[in-house]
Amino acid sequence: MEPAVGKWRWYWGIWALMGLYMATWDLAMYPSAPVLRLVVMNLLQNGAWGLLGLFLIWLANRRPIESFAWSQWRTWTLHLLASVVVAALGLFVAYLISLRLDSWDLGKPIDLARFLKGLPRFYRAYFHTNLLFMWAVVAAFHGLRIYRKYKAREVEAAKLEARFAEAQNLALRMQLQPHFLFNTLNSISALVHANPEGADDMISRLGDFLRMTLDAPPDQLVTLRKELAFIQAYLAIEQVRFQDRLQVRMDIAPDLLDLRVPSFILQPLVENALKHGLSDRPQGGTLQLRAHRDSECLVIEVQDDGEGFTPGREGVGLGNVRARLGLLYKGRHQLDLLGAPGRGTLVVLHLPLDRPGPEVG
Fold first, then answer.
1. How does pLDDT run across 336-348, given as a tens digit for each residue?
2. Domain containing 246 — which CATH number?
3. Any idea which UniProt keywords this protein has (predicted)?
4. pLDDT > 90? residue 183
5. Which in 69, 70, 205, 217 has the greatest CB count within 10 A?
6. Which of 126, 196, 349, 134 is nearest to 259 (CA)?
7. Which residues pair with 351 in a beta bridge?
8. How many domains is the chain built from?
9. Which pLDDT band, with edges at 50, 70 and 90, does 44 fall under?
């Protein structure tokens, strides 16, 4: 309701300003004329033109001009004729107002001879100006209509882009699942003969993890609390394989747990740390997960003290993480991969802070 009221305020405000402007024009031409009379006359005349302009707006709404194509000639002709008729009628009303306000004696009858003599001259002086006003009304209506269509298309394009990004994100998540399952099943097969009980325990924990994954909604962002729950379920699987060779340390302040992060974004990083950093070390090692605020960012660190990162060895998981972050944050994020052979690896994520609230899909 309010936008519509604002629109009509603009409409009548412009006509009022035009009336005041034309009053100053008349005052410059007739400096001895009473100022109040000129102001009232021009405001009434422009008010009458504004009322007649409503008919052109109604007609433009019923029969809008869609293009400059020749097939639209009937619509163009209709609006041209309508504007000419409305301009002529508006000038007739304006002439009556000017004659009536020629003196403040409103009960005095209009001199017919004077009326007929001055009417053609009035049309010759003001018809083209008034016609231009009517064309401006029609043009303004179509300009506003085109602007609204443009904004609506912008909104629709933004929605389509968001849906496309969501589909890409989901596809990337689905790409991780076979990769994760392959690695886990490969670990289970290695335990089947050497440690049957461990293999059975690992299968059980894998089932719990998959159940948690399937029950989770396909949200793009989840709370850090929920993301850590997935990581803990994943680490429970890997703990069977590593036994006492894996130490896990988490240093995450409780006030960060309700901040939102991309779903399943940490699992590939943790998996890389275990697979490439610690799995081949007989003594195992330590995996650390840390999180803290840094200005306007949430900083998450995944660190291991294993074999160390070798440049050019980025696999599916890390490439997947980079792609998903790019889709979600459009360059507002940062991913740093630090390390050296034999000295461990540190992955640092800088994510824009997201206020706590409902998870978004």
1. 888 777 778 899 9
2. 3.30.565.10
3. Coiled coil, Membrane, Transmembrane, Transmembrane helix
4. no
5. 205
6. 349
7. 298
8. 2
9. confident
